Amino acid sequence: MMKNLLWGSPGLKGVWASGKTLEECRRNLGETIEGWIVLRLKKGLNIPPIGNIRIEEPKVMETIDKINASVMEPAC
Q1: How far apart are CA 11 and CA 25, in angstroms?
Q2: pTM
Q3: CA 20 to 30 Å from 9, out of 1, 55, 66, 71?
Q4: How many other CB atoms are found less than 10 A from the CB of residue 75?
Q5: What is the pLDDT of residues 34-52, one digit of tens each?
């Protein structure tokens, strides 16, 4: 009977993946980490460094109604 491998990601609490082979487990872990990052970004939560990789939420531009109209030049 073949057992599944189980692999977690150090520093990412609750992030685990499994697979029948080491390669399948790595691939599944990559997909799990990707989904975990997307979920944290959607919820506005910080993402701890993953090894030497730092992921930061992109800056959002101000909406047009918040821009000072007095500094804008007329188009015509």
Answers
A1: 18
A2: 0.63
A3: 1
A4: 4
A5: 999 889 888 988 888 877 8
Residue 1 in contact with residue 16, Cβ under 8 Å? no
Torsion of CA 25, 29, 30, 32, to 10 degrees: 140
Backbone phi, psi, residue 5, to 5°: -85, 145
Amino acid at 71: V
